[in-house]
Amino acid sequence: MSGLRRWAPLASLLVGALALGWSSSSRADVAQEPASPGGPAVFRRLDETQYKRSIEDIFGAGIEIPGRFEPPLREEGLLAIGASKVVITPSGFEQYELRAREISAQALAETRRKAILPCEPASSDKFDDACARRFFAKYGRLLFRRPLRPAEMASISKVARAATDGTHSFYQGLQFGLERLLVSPNFLFRVESAEANAGGSGAHRLTGYSLASRVSFLLWNAPPDEVLLDAAKSGELQRPEGLERQVERMIASERFAQGVRAFFADMLGFDQFDGLSKDQSIFPKYTSQLSKDAEEQSLRTIVDLLVTQRGDYRDLFTTKTTFLNRNLGSLYKVPVDDSAFGGWMPYAFGTSDPRAGLLTLAGFLILDPTHEGRSSPTIRGKSVRELLLCQKVPPPPPNVDFKLVQDTHNPLYKTARERLTAHRDNPTCAGCHAIMDPIGLAMENYDAIGEYRMQENQAPIDASGKFDGKPYQDAIALGQILHDSPSVSNCLVERAYEYGVGRTASAGEREWLKYLEQRFATDGYKFPDLARRIVTAKAFQAVSADGAVTVALNQPARADQPSAP
Amino acid sequence: MTRKWTRRKVLKGVLAGSAVTVALPLLDCFLDGNGEALASGAPMPVRFGTWFWGCGVNAARWFPDKVGRDYDLKTELLPIKPYQDKVTVFSGFNCLLGGKPNLAHWSGIMATYTGVCPTKGGMGNGTADAPTIDCLVSDAIGSRSRFRSLEIACTGQSNVSYSMRAGSTVNPSEVNPVNLYKRIFGPEFQDPNGSEFKPDPAILLRRSVLSSVKDDREQLMRTVGAADRARVDQYFTSLRDTEQQLGLMLERPAPAEACVLPKSPAEAETGPVWDNAIRTHDALGQLIVMALACNQTRVFNVALSTAPSNLRKAGSAVAFHELTHEEPIDQQLGYQPESTFFMEKSMETFASMLHLLDSVKEGNGTLLDHMLILATSESNYAKIHSIDSLPILVAGTAGGKWKSGVHVNGKGDPCSRIGLTIQQALGMPVGSWGSDAMATSKPIAEVI
Amino acid sequence: MVANVVRADERRVSMAVLTRASMAALVGLLIAGPAAAYVGDSFLKVPGVAGDWRGAQYDHWVRIDANYWKSEEGGMYASLRQTLRRPKQFFSLPPAPHEGASSLMISVDKRSPVLPALMKRCADKTVMPELTFAESADLSRSLRELGPRPADIPEYFEYRLKDVRFTDCPVVQGAVDQALVVSFNDIEWLNYHGKPDGVAVALAPSQVALDSSAISPAKFSGKTRAFVVTWFAIANDVSDDQCAKMNAKPSQDDYYALMPKEQADTERAKNAKAGGVNYEDGQMERRGPDGLNACLLPGITRDPGLNSPQKIARGLDLDGRAGIDNQLYRVQGCMAGFQGHKGFLMQYRNEQRRNGLLSMLVQVSGIDNDVNDDSVDVAVLYSLDHMAKDASGKQILPDYSFRLTDNPEYTHYFTRLHGRIVNGVIITEPVKQLQFNPGLDPELTLADARMRLQILPDGTLKGLVGGYQDWRREMKLNAMSNSESLYGFQCPAMYSALKNSADGMKNPVTGERDGISMAYDIEGVAAFVVPAHREAQPTQARVELEAR
C-alpha cells in the first residue's frame, strides 16, 4: 500500500492547478464529443508487467515473483488487443499456482504480517472470522479491482478456515485464502462489466469499477489504487468533474511515465526485442545487452520528450535529444562521460551527426527479428507503415524467390536498392514493395544494428526517395516529412484509443476518432492531453448493446455491492 | 493478416533463440508440457547432479558447428554419441566478469555453478559469493530423501568439491568407495519400498484452494461476452489439469523398482594417477547411481579432479594443468597432444557416468530420463584461462520437462541462463538468477 | 592510501585459500611473483685478498656475480607469503638474517683473478674472524614492487659477517661461475637500522598526469586519435622453420647429473612415487652441485647451450648503426613460452588485460596531416574501465570510452612522447627512459626507447616499442624451475645468453653492457579517452591479482 500512498501528496498538490487550467474547456468539449456506440466490454489477461506491478503496489516492494509468464499475443497491431484474446494454458496455470503460493507465503511471512494485516487475530492458532473477513475484503478489493461479492467472500473464508484447522495457524490459513485470490480468474483477468447508461452515448456504460480499471491501466499500466476505487464506490468516477479530478491526479503522478512507456513499448512492437538476434560474425558489437540498451534508449527518449518536456509528439521524428550509455556510445561512435558508465547520460547529437528522431536510433533500426545478417529496407518500411502509420501491408505471396534480395555478395547488385529493384521486376512483388521499400531504403545508411555507413560493398548508398509525393535525401529528411504528416499523428490517436479499450475501433467510432484527431492537433500534439481526452470521453466507457451481456443478469447495484467487512 | 505476420515473427523468434513461444488462442503448445508425471501415472522423483572436469577443452575439437538437433560430434565429444539425444550442448555462454577479476581456474566454474563471478580465490580454491546450484536444488527437492546430497571426488582429495553454501568452505567429497558404501548402504539403510506412505497435507490444502476457485465460474460466465466464455472454459480446464497433478502427488510414489543392494567394493588405491582416478570414478559412480535408484538422495556432485587438474599419467611428473601451460601446440595436429589426452579421457569418463545412469530402468524410461546433470569445466581454453564460451553439457530430460539432444549457442549471453533454466525445469520457483553482469531472467527457450 | 588498507585485507583472505601446491603453480603464472634471485654485482671484502673490483665504491673488494641467502634456498617460496602481503608501493629489504649463524651462497666468475685465493681458503677451511659483504638494494628488491628507493634505504646494504668459513665450493666442469658457501656464526647490519622488512613508498603522478590539459585534444591543433591497446607483447613472433630445435626445460636426468651414484639412486626411488622431480615447487632448481640452487646462482652448472632463431627479428634501430636491434629475440625466440603471439606468457598477460585487469591507451594528438606531419604527440595512458569483447571473446570492440584512472600506480606512468609522421608512419624521438605499467607483470623500463606506430586503413593501431632492458632484471624474473618448465628453457643457458648478448646501457664503472635490446609489439582499436570524474579505485581484478 505504501507504494500507492507515495504518489498521493504530489498528486493533491497538482490536481487543483491542472484541473483549473483544463477542466472548464474539457467539459465543453465533452459536450461536443460526437456520439459513439462504444464496443463490447472486454476480458483481458494481465500481462507480466501488470501482474508484477499489481503485487508490488498491493503488498509493497521486495516480494520475489517467480516463474515464467505466458507469452503475449499481438493482434491488430497491439498486444493490448491480443490480451483480449489469449487464454491461460495448463502449463501457464501451473506457473500461476506456484506464483500464488510463493507470493502469499512472502506476504504473510513473520516480517510482513504486521504491516499487511488490518487487524490482530484473537489467537494465532485459531480461525478469527472477523479478522479474516477484514483481511480478504481489503486485499480482495485490491486484487479483483472491485469489492468481493458475498459468495466470493464465503468461498474464500471457507478455504482459510479449513487451512487454519489443518495447520493450526491462522496466518497459514490466510495464506491459503490469499492463494485462492491470486489464482482466481477475477485477478488474472481484467473482467469488465457494464450497466444501463443514464443517457450517455452508447446503450450501456462500464460500471464505475470497470471504468476505474480502464483508466488506471491506460494511464499507469497498473491496477486502480485505493483512492480511485473509493471514487468508483462513491460514484464520483462516473460524474465528469469527478472523473476529471481523478485523471488529473493520475496524469500528475510520476507513474504516468510508466503508463506512457508501456503504451509505446506496445505500439512500437518492443516485445520483439525479447530473443532478438543478429549475426555476430558480421556485427560483433551486437549482444543481447545492446538490444536491451537500444530499447531503453528509445523509451527514455519518448518519455523525456512527451512527459518530462510535455513536447510535441511529432518531434519524436526529428529530435536530436536522447540518452546514451557506454555501449551505445560505441555504437554511435561518440565519447560518453562518467554518468554513462553504469547509467544514462542526456545527450544531444551534433548538427552534423547523422542522427535525428526515433527512426535513426538503434531501437528502431535493430528491431527486425526476420533478418540476422543484413538490414531489410522492406521490413523497415513495413514497420513504419504498420506501426507508425497504422497501414496494413499484405503478406508476400507464397513461393516467392527471395534469392536476389538475400544475396548481399552478388557483384551485380551491391546495394539493397539494386537488389530490390531487380527483385521488383517480378510483378507479383512490385506492388507491395513499392509501398515498403522507398521508406526502408531511406534508412540504408544504418546497418542491421544501426551503425552508420556511407557505402555497401564499396558502392555508395542512395537513401533518397519520395513519401506522399514529397522528395527526401535521407532518413533525417524523411523524419521531417513524417513529422509533418497527419497520418502519423492520426495513427497514434487510433492506437492510443484501441490500447485503452482493448479492441479495434469499430466503424461506428469513426466520427469520434476524427474528433479526437482534431483535438490532438489543437492541443498541440501533447500526448498527456490526448490521454486525458481519451479517458474522460463518454466513448471510453460506452458499451455497445451487443457487447453488454451482463446488464440483464447483473444489476450494477448488486454487482458492485461491497460485502460487509 | 496481422495474425499471420505475428506467427512468422514469433516462429522466427523461436528459431533465433527467443524466450517467446508460440501462443495462439485456446490451442497451446505446452499441452504436453507436464512431463511424465501424467504419462506414467505416479510422479517420478526428479534428480539433479553436477559433473566437473578440470582444464577445459580444445574448442575446435569439442564444440559442434551445427546448432539445434542432430548436432555434429567432434572428436572430443564423440564419447557421448550413444546418449546424444539425451545430451544438450551449450556454446557461446560466457562468464561475464563485468569488471571482476578473471581468477585463474575459479571464475569460470563459480559463474556456471553460482551465477555470480567470484571476487576471491584462484587455482581451484576460493570463495563462492552465492550458493552453488546443487545446494539450491537440494533445498528444493533434497529434503525428501535421506541425504540432501552426496559429493564425490576421484583423485583421493576430499577437499576437492565444487558444492558450496557460499563462503570458502566446501561440502567435502567422499573419495573412498568403501567409505561411501558404508555411508549409504550401511546399517541405517532403509528399503525405500518398505516404508509406508503418508500424503502431504500441504498438497491437500493446495487442492482445496483450486476446487474453491471453481465457485467463481458461474458468476464469471454470466459476466463475460459470448466470445470470452470459451476462454473462461479454457482457464478452468487448465485449473483442473493442475488439480489432477496434485491428485497424483497424493498417491504413493512409484516403487523404486531398480533399487538393489550393491555389494561392498574392494579397497583400492586412490590418487591423481589417471588409471586410479578412473577406477575410483566408476566405483563411486555405481554407488551414487544406486543411491539415486533407492531414493537415498536426489542430488549429487562429481569432481573428476580439482580445476587446475593434478591428474597425471603414471610415471610422469607433469600433471594435466602444467601441461596445458607448458606443452607447445603440435603444428601438424594443431593442439597440445599430451593435454588433449586428458580432455578426451574426461569426456569418456563422463560418458561412462551416463552409461551407469542410463542402464537403470525406471518407469517407462531410465534414471537418466528422470534427472538433469550439469557437466562443465572452469575454462574454455585452460592454456590462457579463457572463460568465454565455457564447455557446458546438460544430460537428461527431467522427466520430459527438458528438451534434450540439441546444441544451443548463447551468442555471448551469461552462462547463468543455463542454471536458471535448470532450476525452472526442475520446477523451482525461480524467475531470475545471478548477479551483476551475470544476472539473468531469460530461461533458454530451446530446452523448455 | 585507503586502497592499500583494503588490499591488505583482500590479500590475507585470498592467501588463506591457497594450498602450497596451487600457490606454486599460481606464482609461476603470475609472473610478478618475487623471484628471490640476486643476479648482478655484489661485493665481498676478504681480509688478505686484494679484490678485483675497481670503482668509486668497494674498490679492491671481491666481485660476486650472483648470491642468495640461506633463507632463499627453497627458491621463490621462501619469501613468497611475506612479500605478497606487502603493498606494491613498497621497498623491501634483502632476506639477510639480522643476527645469528647462517650462510650466504655466492657465485664468482671463473675468470676472476681472485678465485684461486678464495678456493684455497675453502680448501684449507680457513676461519676468517670477519668479512664484509655489500649488495645493491635495487638488485635485491622484489620485482613486483613499485616506486623510488626512499632516502633511508642505502644504495648498498652492508653486513659484517663474523667467524666465517667457506664451507663448500664444489667445482663443476664447464660452468662459467664457481659457487661458494659462505657460512658465518653471526651477522651485523652496518648501514641500515630501520624497519625490519622494508619501507612503504608512494608513487607520484607523472608530469603528464598532473597537467591534465596535456592530454586533452583541445590543446593540440588538428585531429586526435585514441586507441585502447589490445595486444602488448615482446615482438618474438617466430615461424616454425626459424627454430631448428626448441630450447627445453631441464630433464629428469639433469637433476641427478651432479650427484654421487648411490645418492642419485636413492633420490630417484624417493621421487618415483610423485612421478619424478617436481618443477612447480622448486625442487628441480636445486639441481646444482651439493643441492645448490641452479637458478638463483645461474652460472654454477654447465650451460647446455642455446637454440636461437635463424632469420632476423622485427624491431627498431636503436643505435643508429645499420639494422634493427633486438637481442632478446635471439635469446628467447626459440623458447616456446616466450614467443610473441604463439607464446603462453604473452597470451596470458594480454588475456588478463582483456579480462578487465587494465586498459592501456595510446593517444596520438596534433595530427594536421595523416601522411606527413612534422609534429605530433603520442601519449600512453591508463584506464581501469574494462575493454568490451565480442561474443566469442576473441575481438576487442572499438569506439568505447575509457575514463583515465587517477590512481598513482598508473598515473605515475602516464607518458607523452614527441614525434612526427613520415609517409604515414608515426616515429617518436628517442627518450632516455620509457616506463610502462603493463598490469600483472613488473614495471617495464626501457632505455633509449622509441615508438614506431601506424594507423591502418581499418582504423586500428599497429606498431613497435623499442629500447634496452636491464638483462639482470630479465634473469631475476625467470630464475625458477617453475618458469623453466612453463616457458621451456634452462637457467644457465638463459644466464649466459643474456649476459653475452647485452648490447646497451653501458656501465660507467665496468664498461660492460647492462642492457639488452628488445622490441614490443603494440596493437590497438579505436577508443575515446575521457577524464575520470571520481576517485578511481583499483578494480576487483587488480585488488585480487595484485594479492598474488
Describe the overall structure.
The complex is a heterotrimer of chains A (565), B (448) and C (548). Chain A has 565 residues and is mainly α. In chain A, 53% of the residues lie in helices and 6% in strands. Chain A contains 28 helices and 11 strands. Chain A has helices at 2-5, 7-32, 48-59, 79-82, 90-107, 110-116, 129-144, 150-167, 170-183, 185-188, 208-220, 226-234, 240-252, 256-267, 288-308, 326-331, 362-365, 377-388, 403-406, 416-424, 427-441, 475-484, 486-501, 510-522, 527-536, 538-541, 550-553, 556-559, and strands at residues 43-45, 189-191, 194-196, 204-206, 321-324, 345-348, 455-456, 459-460, 465-467, 470-472, 542-543. In chain A, the strands form 5 sheets. In chain A, strands 3-4-11 form a 3-stranded antiparallel beta sheet. In chain A, strands 1-2 form a two-stranded antiparallel ribbon. The longest helix of chain A is centred in the N-terminal third of the chain and has 26 residues, at 7-32. Chain B has 2 domains: 29-188 and 262-447, Alkaline Phosphatase, subunit A (3-Layer(aba) Sandwich); 198-251. Helices cover 34% and strands 12% of the residues of chain B. Chain B contains 13 helices and 12 strands. Chain B has an 8-stranded mixed beta sheet, with helices on both faces. A two-stranded antiparallel ribbon of chain B has the order 4-5. In chain B, strands 8-9 form a two-stranded antiparallel sheet. The two termini of chain B are 29 Å apart. Chain C has 548 residues and is of the alpha+beta class. Chain C has 15 helices and 20 strands. In chain C, the strands form 3 sheets. Chain C has an 8-stranded antiparallel β-barrel. A 6-stranded antiparallel beta barrel of chain C has the order 1-2-4-7-6-5. Chain C has a two-stranded antiparallel ribbon with strand order 3-9. In chain C, β14 (415-422) and β15 form a beta hairpin. At the A-B interface, α5, α8, α9 and α10 of A face α1, α7, α8, α9 and β12 of B.
Q: Helices and strands in order, then pairings?
A:
The complex is a heterotrimer of chains A (565), B (448) and C (548).
Chain A: H1 2-5, H2 7-32, E1 43-45, H3 48-59, H4 79-82, H5 90-107, H6 110-116, H7 129-144, H8 150-167, H9 170-183, H10 185-188, E2 189-191, E3 194-196, E4 204-206, H11 208-220, H12 226-234, H13 240-252, H14 256-267, H15 288-308, E5 321-324, H16 326-331, E6 345-348, H17 362-365, H18 377-388, H19 403-406, H20 416-424, H21 427-441, E7 455-456, E8 459-460, E9 465-467, E10 470-472, H22 475-484, H23 486-501, H24 510-522, H25 527-536, H26 538-541, E11 542-543, H27 550-553, H28 556-559
Antiparallel strand pairs in A: 1-2, 3-4, 4-11, 5-6, 7-8, 9-10
Chain B: H1 2-15, H2 36-39, E1 47-52, H3 59-62, E2 68-69, E3 87-94, H4 107-114, E4 121-122, E5 125-126, H5 133-141, E6 150-153, H6 177-185, H7 201-213, H8 217-223, H9 226-249, H10 274-293, E7 299-303, H11 320-326, H12 337-358, E8 361-362, E9 365-366, E10 371-376, E11 392-395, E12 406-414, H13 416-425
Parallel strand pairs in B: 1-7, 1-10, 3-12, 6-7
Antiparallel strand pairs in B: 2-12, 3-11, 4-5, 8-9, 10-11
Helix pairs in contact in B: 6-10, 7-9, 10-12
Chain C: H1 2-16, H2 20-29, E1 38-45, E2 62-69, H3 77-85, E3 90-92, E4 102-109, H4 115-123, E5 128-136, H5 137-140, E6 156-168, E7 177-184, E8 186-189, E9 198-200, H6 207-210, E10 223-234, H7 252-256, H8 261-272, H9 327-332, H10 344-354, E11 359-367, E12 373-383, E13 400-403, H11 408-411, E14 415-422, E15 425-428, E16 431-436, E17 444-455, E18 461-470, H12 471-478, H13 481-487, H14 491-501, E19 504-506, E20 513-530, H15 540-546
Parallel strand pairs in C: 13-20
Antiparallel strand pairs in C: 1-2, 1-5, 2-4, 3-9, 4-7, 5-6, 6-7, 6-8, 10-11, 10-20, 11-12, 12-14, 14-15, 15-17, 16-17, 17-18, 18-20, 19-20
Helix pairs in contact in C: 12-14
